[in-house]
Design brief:
524 residues, mainly alpha, Growth Hormone, Chain: A, 24 helices, globular
Amino acid sequence: MNPEVSSGRRRAILALLAVTVLIVVMDLTIINVALNPIQQSLDATNAELQWALDSYLITFAAFLFTGGVCADRFGRKKTLIVGLMVFGISSVLGAYAGTVTELILWRAVMGVGAAVVPTVTLAIILNVFPPMERQKAIAAWAAAAGVAFAVGPVLGGLLLEQFWWGSIFLINAPLIVAGIALMLWLVPESKNPSPAKFDPIGVLLSIVAVALLVYGIVMGGEDNEWLSAGTLGAIVGGVALLALLVVIEARMAAPSLDVSLLRNSRFSAGSAAIAFCFFALIGAIFVTQFYYQAVLGFSPMEAGLLMLPMGVGSMVMSARCPKLVMRFGPRAVVTAGSVVMALSFVIMSQFTADTPTWLLVVAQLVFGLGWGCIMAPATASLMSVVPPVKAGAGQAVSQTMRQVGGALGVAVIGSILGVVYRSDMEKSVEVLPEALREEAAGSIGGTLRAVDAAQLGDRAPALMSDAVDAYLSGMEVTMLVAAAFALLSAAVALRWLPKTAPKPPMPPAPQPAAKAADTPGARA
């Protein structure tokens, strides 16, 4: 802890860091409400939309390791500011992308800049706050991340009501400028006084491994050829490189990736529980946004507002988590949250084209209540075994697992949805001209574009009815997959997370008492 930081300044720093996390996490979900406008404007396929999502997630995950090491070595404040500058500049360039390829590229660069934020902000919190206050500070940090998932679609919807789709990225620029200015004024510098040697091999392996793994899954879902040489080779290669990374780092005298952390059940279980739920969360948001807009016909703003109950539920439970953990323990709280998340996905799997709005709201609220019980206690549990001087590198390991889970969530959920949709629509699209059939069978957005282009007249309603039924079939399967991953998180938490919360550290003894204890009379 930095002794020079007053309590008032600590609260200001926490608020600033929470907003910073909100901005970059918001970009994981804000794009979801703009998928339809982007698809129409840039003539993007379903797979290209997945890459617009995954490119951010992939680089986010791949560069977390690098960001954490750089923060501990060169300074957390410096690293955070550089990352925010990269994020802000690429956001502006992405806003004015003229093709979907350009958008994917700039989203990838945004992920590089954003990668340092969750890792470094938590490391700064651990350095600034004394042990007695850290759990509450982590809960506030986690609440900001949870709220961001709902704020993103709402803000995106509001912007799309007035401006073009690029505004959802352009809004980042003024927020980042204000954030950097306040950071220069408020946040003290800190770093590991004995940092490990920079590890270029580990950085390169982590980037290539994650990219290969997610690429293989996305391509397998798009082509439905999971056993092809390209798909299987990419998946196996990614897994092999991840294993090689662990082996190499384990043999280093001063590794950047502290493999010993993975052998600690509190650290690995907390990281795995978050990763599994993040897989389910990101995948479910991807599916429901298309459901709200393409099936139910809500506008982007209305679809965003339907995510708001999720943010409210997450914020409420994150704020209550420290007390719940002290009373029931991390194991019970995280397990219960994961089960509640699974319940919300089961409810969503039964949605139809006629589901009332109030049930959509209830499902999202239940979703948020579950998620709010996971992030804060699982993060506090895993970080409790990481020394504060290694907070950046330690948090990088956990955040990498989380972001890989999110990237795989979009890839796997999107792939399953695409396979089911294509299978159900193969015969229905035969009413279209042959040149439009491939695109129409790929996604519900593609079907909508093909129907407009073909001018089917009286045959259009029947084709759209088939498209809605196909999407709902795919949504049912994908939501049940999301529920299974949430239950897997519950199983991990129930088996390996600690039953009771660690006792809060005792405050230091008053200085006068310490001096009295050193006197001969006191020793007698």
